[in-house]
Amino acid sequence: MSDSPRVVDNLVIGGGLAGAMAALRLASAGREVMLVEKERAAHHKVCGEFLSREALRYLEQAGLMPRDLGAAEINSVRLSTGDKVVEAALPFKALSLSRHILDAALLTRAIHAGCDVRRGMSVEHLEAQGSRWQVRLRNGESLLANTVFLANGKHDLRSWERGEGKQGDLVGFKMLWQLTAAQTEAMRGCMELFLFPGGYGGLSLIENDIANLCFVVRRSELRKIGPWPDLVASIVNSNAHLRHIMDGAKALWERPLAISSIPYGYLAGRPSGIWGIGDQAAVIPSFTGDGMSIALHSASMAAEMYLSGNTADDYNRRMHTQLKGGMSLATLLSRAMVTGTGRRLAPILLTLFPHAIRWIATSTRIPESALLNAPANLDPPSTLRRTHIA
């Protein structure tokens, strides 16, 4: 038996939104695609789970209708801090759906298009070898890939460090809650954004009327407050509106999900020869609600540019140009929001300038002119389909 590594035409590392979308578009164009995902099954992630119009556009192009999956509608945003609350309508319709449901649905679409999906496999090493990429999996298997799409999220791949973001001192937490019936109805259609000393977060309904609480806090503040129960109590007690919403709510997990360190403000741009997509392309502060849009957009653009004969460095430069303005503004606002000055000014500014929400939401989003259309061949002939799940 030969010990030569298997040669793969297109390798996608990571099975989240970016990886699944890139795999779907490539497989639909008739290309050979293998996707490796370290988790054996769909799972929850630290994510605000906000689907803006840009994200919805790309999902619908992929044949997914989030409302059919149980997504909750979001029409407005409420910002609260201390004893102050300000509400404003969103300039677009949005939805909220858990990554547990959404990632699985999009990956299933990629499988049906012919992508060879290998779950429970993680990459230990990635290195350029001539015109190919040498890949070593945790199980000891070696691959040679002609092209690699890196979609491993906010965590760095060993031997392929991404670099620090501009705001790297935040720790992210997520917990699902069951609110009372009255609280659920009061929240319906609204995204709750809240500020607290050293951080900010969001609370919104997802499928089955479950509430998703997701927030970030400065590491220095976390050290002062202590463990999860004390952290939640501190946040709730500092915000009268949030305290009212959460009174009597029941946590659905024994412990929260957490992530650290989050490289907010990271934006790829240096030549690398690799197709970094999703959080490997850009990590925008979570309060903008644009993270999932960037994941889907970057994956779609990478696949289209690759199929058109462009290089990974061409793609990196284009993504950098498209996102740098919104990323700079989002990071500046994020830094302000975790300071006392930012928390005091936010409700005042929103009261005096109701259009601020519209301006922020528009200024930190992917430019409309950059959004892509669906490729004509998104559903390939059955003869091109090679479905495999390991």
- Estimate the global geometry from the Cα principal axes: globular
Give the CA-CA distance, first to last residue.
22 Å
Helical content band = 25-40%
CATH class of the domain at 6-67 and 95-165 and 266-335 and 369-389: Alpha Beta
**Average pLDDT score:** 90
Computed over alpha carbons, the radius of gyration is: 21 Å
At the third CATH level, what is the topology name of the domain at 6-67 and 95-165 and 266-335 and 369-389? FAD/NAD(P)-binding domain
Give a count of the beta strands, DSSP E runs of length 2 or more: 17
Counting DSSP H or I runs of 4 or more residues, the number of helices is 11
Q: Could you say which structural class the secondary elements and strand pairing correspond to? A: alpha/beta
Residues in β-strands, percent:
25-35%
Q: SSE layout and pairings?
A:
Elements: E1 6-13, H1 17-28, E2 33-37, E3 50-51, H2 53-61, E4 72-81, E5 84-96, H3 99-113, E6 116-119, E7 123-129, E8 132-137, E9 142-150, E10 170-178, H4 181-187, E11 189-196, E12 199-205, E13 211-218, H5 219-225, H6 228-237, H7 240-246, E14 250-251, E15 257-259, E16 275-276, H8 291-307, H9 312-337, H10 340-352, H11 356-363, E17 388-389
Parallel strand pairs: 1-2, 1-9, 2-6, 4-11, 6-17, 9-16
Antiparallel strand pairs: 3-5, 4-5, 7-8, 8-9, 10-13, 10-14, 10-15, 11-12, 12-13
Helix pairs in contact: 1-3, 1-8, 2-8, 8-9, 9-10
Describe this structure in words.
The protein has 390 residues and is of the alpha/beta class. The chain has a domain of 224 residues: 3-Layer(bba) Sandwich (FAD/NAD(P)-binding domain). It contains eleven helices and 17 strands. The strands form two sheets. Strands 3, 4, 5, 10, 11, 12, 13, 14 and 15 form a nine-stranded mixed sheet that branches. Strands 1, 2, 6, 7, 8, 9, 16 and 17 form an eight-stranded mixed sheet that branches. A hairpin with a 2-residue loop joins strand 11 and strand 12. Helix 1 packs parallel to helix 8 and helix 8 packs antiparallel against helix 9.
